[in-house]
Amino acid sequence: MSMQTSTERIRTAVGHIVLMFGVLVSLFPFYWMVVMASNTTPDIFSYPPKLLIGSHLFENMGKVLDNIDFFGSMLLTLIASLGVTVLVLFFDSLAAFAFAKYEFPGRNALFGLLLATFMIPAQLSLVPQFVTLAEFGWIGSLKALIIPGAANAFGIFWMRQYAKGAIPDELISAAKVDGAGFFRQYLTVGLPVLRPGLAFLGIFTFINVWNDYLWPLIVMTDPNRLTLQVALDQLNGIYGTDYSMVMAGALMSVIPLIGVFLIGARSFIADLAAGAMKF
Fold first, then answer.
1. How far is Cα 87 from Cα 110, in angstroms, rounded to an integer?
2. pLDDT class of 276 with cuts at 50, 70, 90
3. CA-based diameter of the chain, in Å?
4. pTM for the model
5. Of 96, 116, 168, 187, which is most buried with the most CB atoms under 10 A?
6. How far is it, in rounded angstroms, from Cα 14 to Cα 186?
7. Helix (H) or strand (E) holding 31
């Protein structure tokens, strides 16, 4: 018994050490970004490199605010990210609920066609989407940022796989016996069970939209209305670049994402634990 206990303790200690090492490796890029943002550009290229946080962080942040409309771009990016996230959560979960718990003609064929879209590079759809939005007169507006991303194949696939195992068929049958229609079943039966999956999808979607560079660069034609990633690109000079200022801007753009991740991850873990206790 004592040998077994000692072995278990050693395995636990090794597991903790491996996890701590993984955490340190994961956090190092963020720490290195802080180091570069808090030093000067000559310090970044010095040898040996400086590994400690410098004293120029607020100075570099001030340069960012002087060169671009940071808060205006951040507000535009925040509105677009929230809009796309809300629409994706609604449409993807609604479609996934139908694919997972309802039998209808052509269901498997439609789902297979949906999966086939994964093989199409996103770049191929840029020109057709731009032409369509130009016909609608949406180029340069928030609608061009939000509407094309209102639903996606990954979200439907993810939520369908989650709903298929998380929602018992008995709940759907009981709701039908009570006279609940499709949307009532979705709201009262589906959504409460799907909350952990929705939390993950919400975090994933928000971060992707927040970090998107190519699509906003194409459709936002007004230089005074740029998303954050496009605005930060303007910090790169033609003949020279202040890399400490660029890294300070990158750091400022990452801070809101950390808050979103912490809030969303906490909700995801709490809902997942509550669901496990119920089942």
1. 21
2. very low
3. 76
4. 0.85
5. 96
6. 45
7. helix 2-37
